[in-house]
Input
Amino acid sequence: MNITDIDDKIIKRARQNYLYEQYVSDVKCKSLEDILNDQNYVITAFKSTCEKNTDPDKKVMLDKMLQKMTTAVENLTKAVQSGNNETIELAKKIYLTEAKDPIADWIDKQKGAEVTENSIFESLPRYWEDEFHKDMTALNILSPDVLTRVSEYVPQIVKFIQKIIANGLAYESNGSVYFAVNDFDKRDKHHYAKLVPEAFGDSKALQEGEGDLTGDEKLTEKKSANDFALWKSSKAGEPWWDSPWGKGRPGWHIECSAMASDIFGDMFDIHTGGVDLKFPHHDNELAQSEAAFGNPEWVKYFLHTGHLTIAGCKMSKSLKNFITIQQALQKNTASQLRLAFLLHSWKDTLDYSENTMEMSVQYEKFLNEFFLNVKDLTRHILTEKPFKHFDIWREQETQLQEKYNSSRKQVHEALCDNVDTRTALETFRDLVSASNIYIRDNKDSLNSLLLRKIASYITDMLNIFGVINGPRGGIGFPVGGSNDCSDVEKTVLPYVSALAEFRNLVREQAKLLKATDILKLCDEIRDETLPNLGVRLEDKDGGAFAVKLVDKETLLKEKEAKKLAEQEKAAEKERKKAAAAAQAAAKEAQKKIDPKKMFLGETDKYSAFDENVSFLWLK
Output
């Protein structure tokens, strides 16, 4: 895994954060008059930024920021006029918060060139790298075997650039080094923009790839507008490293090529990234790497992932639909999030919405119920003598075994076909459905080993997919999120089963004796006590029961949903009762009407009545 910790946006943001923190610290020493004077400059500068921006989404965001900042300025002005110190301090704090980005940008333009300490540029990427790793751990994503950071690979990057220059496909200009795109494209075994040929010469995309800190003066250093920077000479206010071309830093595209090649060599199999990185980033990586090694192929396969949208819209701060992983994990578990991704093709756009996550939640419930049923129905084989495991093999078992075999084949073929996890999960669903039918139709003669084999296979595949955490070899989802769920079950279940057995005997006796108080206590243990301990106890026909260890939070949510359903049912019953009473009252009232007056209101049927209402004329 490559970590980009030297980048134009990172440099600019780190510098602005540092200058903003200094400004906030200095505000304590400034007079209110000075702060209000600064506000005028900040707003003027920010308005200019808003007017120049042409990106529609970003313009919406900037306009909202301007409105918030303007309101904060007005409130601060009013607070100063009030003379109340507490009101002034609160208004000042709100202003500094709402106007953080505009203030930082304004100061950066004035003092950015004075920031020279490299450590200032290191803290921001280190912080976000730590946050990134926390998110990956929370999602049960395995760590890479090797992690490379640009800041630790500058010597290797310099050598990589020197190889490209030696091969005649890069040139130095005013302390920077540029890749010669047209020269590369003329070589017999090379051609530029392999991934997106139609983007060759797209000046806007190329300029975005060069970075936020690339000024217009850099354009004159290039031999061609298509050329891109391999090494950037550092300006004041930017971190730098020594090189044969002077003080500078790596360009964005060269970082990945140099670091990946240092680990893999001159060719590797799979390179991943978002679909938006195809051009110019990945096309530039390919070109410079082929130029360095003299090979026509640096990567065999690119896997470009689709975009993520939020409720059908592009994820954007301006639309206020920006969702972090930690925020998503407050609504759903890591397993549910991973299932949502697995139920969609990795190369297509995924829409994160309530409907998407509900599909994932229901799929998880469907699988979990199957696992719990299999464990409950086949738990006896863990204590019985081995010869009792081998029940007679009938046509029903043969059919289920064939379904199991064909499902494994389908899953293998789906994963070989462009890592088609969506088809794999649908195949699991079909196999579980077939198993559930088998369980339903063969209650008295289930083949426990066959059911456990199917459940173990699906569990193992979900473990490989990262949906289930912990050691492989068990059945179902971990209990309470613990990695050693098999030990938990072995330890706890004998005690819970003993309690369930005792309760069941008491309950059956209470039925015979019609002891309703005792039956009520038995129900309370099932509905109130055990769910709080992470145990679902299910009463079945014929005096049977099932014991299932389930996550406590899941059981409490089920309990709450059941309570709400009962309340709604009771409310509906009351509504029907009230409606019936109203209807009966209306009928009763109808009976009390004088027969002579009964028809007077029906003017749509009758045109006139005589004085005694004894004759009437039909319309």
The first helix runs from residue 8 to 27. The mean pLDDT is 87. The chain has four domains: 2-138, 148-305, 334-470, 491-550. The two ends are 89 Å apart (CA to CA).
